[in-house]
TrEMBL record:
Similarity annotation: Belongs to the ATP-dependent DNA ligase family.
Residue ranges, compositional bias (Low complexity): 182-192
Residue segments, region Disordered: 105-226, 849-889
UniProt-listed Enzyme Commission number(s): 6.5.1.1
Organism, scientific name: Parascaris univalens (Nematode worm)
Enzyme's top EC category: ligase
Identification of the protein by name: DNA ligase 3
Lineage: Eukaryota, Metazoa, Ecdysozoa, Nematoda, Chromadorea
Length: 914
């Protein structure tokens, strides 16, 4: 019966791989497709088809090997989309059709494939083999019987020698001792010799087997982890790693997210499915894997080059073209092994192998471990094993699409609980057509996906979003941290839900019980950063590193707490923000410079000016920005329902720092941008030294169409140097770590782009006097500018200095205290009755009036905020009154004159020596 295979032709809309040769089908290149049954719908009531893409030559080569009954392309009428093919490509396909007809015709008229031998032929061959064997045995017997006199004399001499050598208690046969010269004696002696030869061979065999066992024992000692995988296991057929790879291929081949979820659903709901669903989902979501494999692309290329004797340079060039190290290694791997290798790996085998990989950091150990799995994996399996190592299967499917494919509502349940095991167990207990939603309960020790904020472009947007009023909170430029406290056990998770490095949180286990003596079991959402103990000001992002931290002698690691998800064992995520804040205020005992409550103010509805002033003040003080939160909002894990205000967000970037920079070089992209320039090295011209200097690397701002056009325009003016420092031209001053894959031939002909960022920053890597741009993106292609009219080094220096100056908005007396100072927050709740009595009063030191918030530093001390209002001097008498009294009756404050507290009660109790 003829096959119903269909064929089509078009031009590639995105980068894909040929099903036969596995080489890339670049975007815009001619490709042909064959419709085949979808393996995941064959058992359903509505089976569907999927496309397999080929180069035109590869498809026709495949068709030449088809059976005579298989339908092939016989004319353009068999090809869907023929009318859209260009004339040149039509001619090419017609030639391939003609050639296919000739090949298939030759197959039909030529010599046939050798048929199986008949029964008579088999019997005849068997008889001949038996006769030949019998003749050899007869010849051997005749030889042993001593057929001539020379042979008899030789046997006699050998027998005499054996007699003399066995005097020491060795028993010999009577026939051997009395052998004289007749045929019977010689025959008996020959039989004895034959027996001894057999015994000798047996001993040799035993010794050989013993040596082999010893070698195997040594191998087991050296490769214990390999022997574990060899042990016989009984897994479900659905746990086959080959099936997992095929599922990934299907997920990658469909573009709609609903189709991806459907494919997963069909896989896990097949009749008799009894696979390890938890392991399957974990492998489909490798980005959630917290294991560290210590292998990057360059290291993988180096190790596989050593294993198979490949050229590292060729592999690197191929990787630059594909942008995917797994595809590169697979292509070379297919050429290095014999066809027909079968798969025997299971999901459990691969997971166990990955576990052991985390233990190896030495190159030799990693190479041996990779070699082990390469000997057992098929090319397709090796490709996906490498993608698991890189934690990117390239299937364009996230947790939502995978989990909703398992069961409708599973993703929402996972977002709330972050307990994948319990979610999947619940999925198994429900019927296949039943959806579910788990309650929002959270569990200690299981990280909760943090609630996030979306950019806020204006004050008006904030007022429209937060209709119930808002808390305006400092956006600390530190690292997000989630603290889980269960009894005396503390666990810290980062924003990515991974464990936090020990040196960043080593002190918190000691101070958290002091800060929350009544907390019990709790989960806190916070920010950890360095704080200058002299001023109380938070230090910039990145200072928490081990080496950076050593540069700040007067700084301490401080935890700023801004939300509470669970307190004293009670889940709070469903309670409004104002209640969660109240619980924090009532239960925290701040530990100076160690554990503090984040600073925030209440912004009521329509208080536009108050919010605008706070925004400008935050920018003026060098803070990252503000976070705005609706008073009635609940905590929604993973949702972006807060607002963040930063300098570069306001008024669509009008406040942001921008510069017109020159394109000096480019880097290969990865993934779907592999093989093309997608990240660019931007810089300025320095008239003093007559060289071009680097400012930043920028890979954001261009859409796909623009990036394609830019690549075509830049290709003729770029020269490939492959990140070789020795090949950097003399006109470019560039650090080793920033050497690009390409440099422009003539920087004076290079394009100019407008680059916008969050702010100008300092960077030791860049040569433009250490000036760089944080979070850069291309906002405009300046075709109207050339290298001479672009921003030069002196202009960039002035822009940097201006960006660090303070704004000139009018400050009132109330604004003299910095936002980061712990005493600057007047009662953010105001009159409790105004909020329906839901929130009580804050701590006493946060209910002070503006008069209580005056600075109590001596006149000769440097004020906290430069450029303060002249009214500051008028507050000095009040400060002296507050501090008057017998100093000997007071306890000396450990912070001395640098104490940040202005609370009158504190001033009366403590003496602040200069």
């Amino acid at each position: 019966m003829a096959s119903s295979t269909k064929f089509s032709v078009d031009y590639a809309k995105r980068v894909a791989n040929c099903k036969k040769c596995r080489q890339q089908l670049p975007k815009g290149e001619l490709r042909m497709a064959r419709m085949v049954p979808n393996p995941f719908t064959t058992d359903s009531n509505n089976p569907s088809e999927m496309k397999q893409y080929f180069h035109a030559e590869c498809l026709f080569e495949t068709l030449t090997r088809c059976r005579a009954t298989t339908k092939v392309i016989e004319s353009p009428a068999d090809i869907e989309g023929w009318s859209n093919v260009q004339e040149e490509d039509r001619s090419k396909i017609l030639d391939l059709i003609s050639n296919l007809e000739k090949v298939r015709a030759g197959k039909g008229n030529g010599t046939k494939t050798p048929s199986r031998p008949s029964k008579k032929q088999v019997e005849s061959d068997t008889y001949e083999r038996e006769s030949s064997k019998k003749k050899k045995e007869d010849s051997s017997k005749k030889h042993l019987s001593g057929g001539n006199s020379e042979h008899k004399e030789k046997r006699k001499a050998e027998s005499t020698e054996k007699k003399s050598s066995k005097k020491e208690g060795t028993t010999t046969t009577k026939e051997g001792e009395e052998s004289g010269g007749n045929e019977e004696s010689a025959g008996t002696s020959g039989s004895s010799d034959k027996a001894q030869n057999k015994r000798g061979e047996k001993r040799k065999l035993e010794v050989g087997e013993s040596c082999e066992r010893e070698k195997e024992g040594k191998k087991r000692k050296v490769h214990v982890q390999e022997e574990d995988i060899k042990k016989e296991r009984r897994y479900s057929k659905f746990d086959s790693f080959k099936l997992f790879c095929k599922l990934c291929e299907v997920l990658a081949s469909v573009s709609k997210y609903t189709d991806k979820s459907t494919a997963v659903n069909m896989f896990v709901n097949k009749d008799g499915y009894d696979g390890d669903m938890l392991l399957l989902v974990r492998m489909l979501l490798p980005s959630t894997d917290q294991r560290v494999f210590n292998l990057k692309e360059k290291q993988l290329i180096k190790l596989f080059s050593n294993i198979f004797g490949w050229s590292p340079e060729e592999l690197t060039d191929s990787f630059n073209q594909t942008g995917d190290v797994s595809i590169t290694i697979r292509q070379y791997f297919e050429k290095s092994i014999e066809d027909g290798r079968k798969s025997h790996l299971s999901l459990q085998d691969v997971d166990s192998w990955l576990n052991r990989l985390t233990e190896y950091t030495k190159e030799d150990d990693q190479q041996r471990h990779l070699n082990y799995i390469a000997k057992r994996a098929t090319p397709l399996e090796l490709q996906f094993i490498l993608r698991l190592i890189k934690k990117d299967l390239r299937i364009n499917a996230g947790a939502k699409h995978i989990l909703d494919g398992i069961k409708k509502g599973a993703y929402e349940a996972f977002q709330n609980s972050r307990d994948l095991k319990s979610v999947l167990e619940k999925c198994r207990t429900l019927g296949s057509d039943t959806s579910f939603l788990i309650d929002s309960g959270i569990a200690l020790g299981t990280p909760v996906k943090p609630m996030l904020a979306e950019p806020c472009r204006s004050v008006e947007q904030a007022m429209k979003t937060c209709v119930n009023g808002m808390f305006s909170e400092i956006k600390y430029d530190g690292e997000r941290l989630q603290l889980h406290k269960s009894g005396d056990t503390f666990t810290f998770f980062s924003r990515s839900l991974r464990p936090v490095q020990e040196h960043k949180v080593s002190h918190l286990s000691d101070v958290i019980p002091q800060a929350f003596p009544k907390g019990g079991d709790m989960i806190l959402d916070a920010e950890v950063l360095l704080v200058d103990t002299a001023t109380g000001k938070p230090l910039p992002f990145g200072t928490l590193g081990v080496h950076k931290k050593e540069q700040f002698a007067n700084a301490l690691v401080c935890l700023f707490v801004f939300d509470c998800l669970l307190f004293d064992g009670k889940c709070l995520v469903d309670r409004p923000l104002k209640e969660r804040k109240k619980i924090l205020e009532e239960n925290i005992n701040e530990v100076p410079n160690r554990v503090l409550l984040s600073n925030y103010q209440l912004i009521r509805k329509n208080e536009h000016d108050k919010l605008k002033t706070m925004i400008w003040k935050a920018i003026d003080e060098g803070l990252e920005g503000l976070v705005l939160k609706d008073l009635e909002s609940v905590y929604e894990p993973g949702k972006r329902h807060w607002l963040k205000v930063k300098k570069d967000y306001l008024e669509e970037g009008k406040m942001a720092d921008t510069a017109d920079l020159i394109v000096l070089g480019a880097y290969y992209g990865t993934g779907c941008k592999g093989g093309m320039m997608s990240v660019f090295l931007m810089g300025v011209y320095d008239e003093t030294s007559n060289v071009f200097l680097t400012v930043t690397k920028c890979g954001n701002g261009h859409d796909d169409a623009t990036l394609d056009r830019i690549n075509k325009e830049l290709q003729p003016m770029m020269r490939k140097i492959g990140r070789d420092y020795e090949s950097v031209p003399c006109w470019l001053k560039c650090s080793r770590s920033l050497v690009p894959d390409f440099v422009v031939d003539d920087p004076k002909k290079a394009p100019v782009w407008e680059i916008t960022g969050a702010e100008f920053s300092r960077s030791d890597n860049h040569s433009a006097r250490g000036i760089s741009i944080r979070f850069p993106r291309v906002t405009k292609i300046r075709d109207d500018k050339s290298w001479s009219s672009a921003t030069n080094m002196d202009e960039l220096q002035k822009m940097f200095e201006v960006s660090k100056q303070k704004t000139d908005f009018d400050r009132s007396v109330e604004d003299e205290i910095p936002l980061f100072a712990k005493n600057n927050v007047n009662n953010p709740f105001g009159d409790s009755a105004a909020l329906d009595g839901d929130i009580g009063k804050l701590e006493a030191n946060k209910m002070e009036t503006t008069e209580d918030n005056t600075n109590h530093q001596d006149d000769d001390e440097k004020p906290c905020l430069e450029g303060g209002s002249p009214k500051k001097e008028e507050t000095a008498p009040k400060q002296k009154e507050a501090t008057s009294g017998d100093a000997s009756e007071k306890v000396t404050c450990k912070y001395g004159s640098k104490c940040y507290r202005k609370n009158p009660e504190h001033l009366r109790k403590y003496h602040h020596s200069p």
